[in-house]
Records
---
Amino acid sequence: TPIANPRWMVPNWSFGIREEAVRRQVDEARSGGADLVVSAVPRTASTSTAKLASRVPGIDVILTAHSHDALPFPIKVGEDAADRFGLARKIPLATRSEVRERGIADYSYALIPVLADAIEPDPDMAALVHKIREPHEAMLGAELARTESLLYRR
C-alpha cells in the first residue's frame, strides 16, 4: 500500500506480513501446547496468505478480512493451513470447525452475500446516517470533474 499510504503521510505505520514474527508466534504457540493455531491477517490477497501458509509451517487456519476474492471454498495449502476463511462487509462468512488432535478434523464453510436492497433498513440507523450527512450534502453532491470516456474501477 505504499501508493495509497505514502510513508510521509503515515510515518509510524508499517505494512506487509512479517513472516519471521508470525513464525516465532506460531512456534511459541505450538511449543506451549496449542492444539490449533489461527492467524488473523488483515487486508491481503489470497495469493499473499497462501504464500504465508506455504512458508510458515504450523498454521491451521488463516482468517482474513477485506478481501475482494470471494471464493466458494477455502484454499488448502499443504497439510496445515486452510486459507481464505474470511471476507469483509459484502460477503460475510460462516464457518464451523471441528478441532481434534492438534488440527482441524473437519469444517463447514459458507459465504453469505449481503444484498443491500434485500435488507429492510433500520429506521434509527437510517436517521443517524441522514443526520450526519445532511450538513455535508452540498459538498458530497458537487460535481468535481467530468470524463469524456468510460472509466473502469478495478
---
Amino acid sequence: MPIKVAINGFGRIGRQTFRIILEKHPLLEVVAINDLTDNKTLAHLLKYDSVYGILDKKVSFSENSILIDGKDFQVLAEKDPLKLPWKKLKADIVLECTGVFTDGEGARKHLKAGAKKVIISAPCKEKTTPGFVLGVNEDKYNSKEVDVMDMGSCTTNCLAPMAKVLNDNFKIKNGFMTTVHSYTNDQRILDLPHKDLRRARAAGLNLIPTSTGAAKAIGKIIPELEGKLDGIAIRIPTPAVSVLDLIVEVEKEATKEEVNEAFLTAASSENFKGILRVEKSPLVSTDFVGDTYSAIVDFKETMAKGNLIKAMGWYDNEWGYASRLAEFAEFVGKKI
C-alpha cells in the first residue's frame, strides 16, 4: 500500500522534497500540493532550479494540477488548513513546509482536516511537540502517541549526529556552535526592512551574523544535552551548502586522531547509514551541492586539546534536509 503524502508549501524545501520523492521513494504517493502561487510559476520553478539544475522530466501544468511525464499531481491554493481536503484525499501524512504553521496549534489544523500525521519541516515553537532527527532519536517515535512532530532544521540535522558521536564517546559538558550558512528567503536581497536589522541587509553582499535555534533545540533531540549548547549563524552570499563549526568541552580528554576515529566508526555504523559520513579530501562548499548526507565531517579541520574538541561538518542545507524529510515521511508512514 502506498503512503499518501500531501505537501503544504511548495517553496525551496517543498519542491526539493517532491523531486526526491519522485526519484527515490516509490512507496510515497503525493496526493496533493497546496501553495498559493499559480500553477504556471510552480511548474516552472520545479523544472528549472538555479542550484540543482533542470529536472529531467517533462513538466507541464493545467488549471488544477502539475503534470510530470504526463502524471497528474493535484494542486490546491487554500490558505486555511482547516479547509484542505485531506480526508477526501485520504492523506496519511502532511509535510508542513510553508514556514508559517510552525507551532503545534497551526499544524494540528491538518489533523482536523483529515490527515493522520503532520511533519513540520522546521523546529516547532511549541516545546511539547516532539522533534525527531534520523539517526539520533527516531527510535523514540511512538505512532500511537504522536500525530504532530517536527524534524528540526537543516542545522539541527547536522548538529545532532555530530553531537551524539562526541557525547557518546567523550561526554559533552558544554559548547558552542557556529553555522556558516547560505542565505535563505528570510533575508533581503537588497537593503530593505526586516525585524532582524542584520537580515535587513543585502544577502548577496554581506556576511550576516544572526540567530539560530539549532543548538538550543538539541535538548529536544538529545535530552542529555539540554542547556549545554548554544550558538549563532553567519549567513553568507552562497545559495546552498553550509558548514557547522562545533566546539565542545568534554569530560574525557581526547586527541584529534581519537575524535576522527569516533566519527569514522559512527559513519560506518548501520545507525548513521546515509546520514553521517566523513570527508578526507580538501573540498569546498560547491563540492557538496546536492549531497544527501545530514552531516559530512571534515577530517582535516578536526582539532583537540585536552578537554576541548573542535569539529566541522558540511551539509547541503536544502537537499540534505529534504532527503531526510522524504525518508522520515516513509518511516512514519510505515508505522501508521
---
Amino acid sequence: MTAKSILMICQGNICRSPMAEGFFSHQLNQSHSSITINSAGLAAVVNYPAEPKAHSIMQKYGIDISKHRARQLTDTLVREAELIFVMTKRQLAALEHKYLFVKGKAFLLGYWQNFEIQDPVNQSIDAFEKVYQQIEMAWQDWKTRIL
C-alpha cells in the first residue's frame, strides 16, 4: 500500500489532523520519503492556526506546526490523495457517503488497533497529549505499510 500523497482529516482542522500531518511529515522526512502529507477539516475553521495546546504538544516533541492554517476539505483534495486517514468512524462514514470512490483508500487512523482519536478541543493539555500518543501508535502500525 505505497502512497505518494496522504490526507489527514478531522472536524475543524485545528487539532487532530494538523497534529497527525505534522507527526507523519516529521517521520517521513526522517525516512527521506517523498510522500506528501496534507490535512483538512470536514467543517474547517478556515485559516485558523492549530489550537495552541496542539502546537504546544507538538513543539514538546520537536515538531513545528506553527505555519498550519486550517482548510476545508474539497473534492480536489479527496481526489488527489492516494491514502486518506480520518480520526473517527463517524468521519469515515460521512466521507464515504459524500465521496463513494474513497472506499479502499480512506481508513480510520487507528484502524489496525481499532481506536478512534477523539476531539481534544476545549479540553486539558492531557487530552492533547493523548492524541499525540494515539497518532504515534497509529504511525507504528502504518509506517511499514506506507513506506
